[in-house]
């Protein structure tokens, strides 16, 4: 009996699953700041130092927490993820998609690839739904438990490496030889991969998935301007553009269901070809 085909769904987080930046729900309010004030401070630091923007916000988070008298521990950051608000249907989405996949004979796996804080995501209600979470991380002091240095920083171009890691089943971020090794067969074929994101910072990932035969989907909030997502579709950078509504029966669910059905059909056709090779 042949193995079930696998569909890997890769997600951005901020403004894709969560309604806005993850830091806005717990971390920034704990500083006594508004999101606007925090991100302006981060931008100012980046401009003054020339520091890369992702590294800048990781620095400013730690520096601002110290000035506010907050201990930046993993437990504190986990706690900051508990009140994250998601788009409609997100909390039941994963189970529904998994069940639909089973009905079609397809195993669905979910992966998160975010430039946000992995420690904050790990504290949110949907963290358990992902086979693997990739995001920015800190190293914590063994004695005090507080942040001492960034462990991983994931910017929008670095996100693309995870497309290949997931396809090959090489999940360790430090395994450079494994991800670059030529394999006779990938654990998940490129055409069985889907990327869901919301904007320009997702473009490299969207393009690399689409250009390798997978499907990319741009989402935007219901009732708000969808110009960015629509322009990504019109420019050929994504396959689909739709509202960030993960509810049962919404367009996003219908699109992914069709993609899963396509994977199931292609798998069955491939099996038929292998059983009935062309005759001379």
Can you characterise this structure?
The protein is α/β, with parallel strands linked by helices and 280 residues long. 41% of the residues lie in helices and 17% in strands. It has 11 helices and 7 strands. The protein has helices at 27-31, 35-49, 53-67, 74-79, 90-104, 118-121, 161-168, 176-180, 203-211, 227-234, 251-275; strands spanning 6-11, 107-117, 132-140, 147-152, 193-197, 215-220, 240-243. A 7-stranded mixed beta sheet has the order 4-3-2-1-5-6-7, with helices on both faces. The longest helix has 25 residues, at 251-275. The radius of gyration is 20 Å and the shape is globular. 39% of the residues are buried. The mean pLDDT is 94.
Question: Major β-sheet, in short?
Answer: 7 strands, mixed
The poorly predicted ranges are: none
What is the terminal separation in angstroms? Answer: 28 Å
Order of helices and strands: EHHHHHEHEEHHEHEHEH
Total strand segments: 7
Based on CA atoms alone, the radius of gyration comes out at 20 Å
Helix content: 40-55%
The whole-number mean of residue pLDDT values reads: 94
Strand neighbour order, sheet with most strands:
4-3-2-1-5-6-7
Fraction in beta strands: 15-25%
Shape: globular
Question: Helix- and strand-based class?
Answer: alpha/beta
Q: How many helices does DSSP assign?
A: 11
């Amino acid at each position: 009996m042949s193995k079930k085909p696998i569909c890997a769904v890769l997600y951005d987080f901020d403004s894709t699953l969560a309604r806005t930046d993850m830091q806005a729900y717990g971390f920034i309010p704990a500083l006594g700041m508004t999101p606007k004030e925090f991100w302006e401070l981060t931008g100012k630091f980046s401009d003054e130092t020339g520091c890369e923007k992702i590294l800048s916000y990781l620095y400013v988070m730690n520096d601002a927490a110290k000035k506010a008298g907050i201990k930046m521990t993993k437990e504190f950051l986990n706690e900051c993820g508990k009140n994250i608000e998601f788009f409609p249907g997100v909390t039941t989405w994963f189970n529904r998609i998994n069940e639909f996949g089973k009905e079609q004979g397809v195993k669905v796996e979910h992966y998160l690839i975010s430039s946000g804080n992995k420690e904050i995501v790990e504290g949110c209600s949907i963290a358990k739904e992902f086979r693997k979470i990739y995001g920015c991380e800190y190293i914590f002091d063994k004695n005090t438990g507080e942040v001492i240095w960034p462990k991983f920083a994931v910017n929008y171009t670095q996100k693309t490496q995870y497309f290949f890691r997931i396809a090959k089943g090489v999940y360790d971020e430090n395994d450079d030889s494994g991800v670059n090794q030529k394999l006779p067969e990938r654990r998940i074929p490129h055409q069985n991969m889907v990327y869901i994101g919301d904007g320009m910072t997702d473009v490299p990932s969207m393009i690399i998935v689409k250009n390798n035969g997978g499907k990319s989907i741009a989402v935007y909030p219901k009732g708000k301007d969808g110009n960015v997502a629509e322009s990504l579709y019109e420019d050929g950078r994504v396959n689909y553009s739709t509202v960030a509504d993960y509810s049962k029966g919404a367009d996003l669910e219908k699109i992914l269901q069709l993609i899963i059905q396509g994977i199931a059909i292609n798998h069955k056709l491939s099996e038929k070809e292998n059983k009935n090779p062309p005759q001379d």
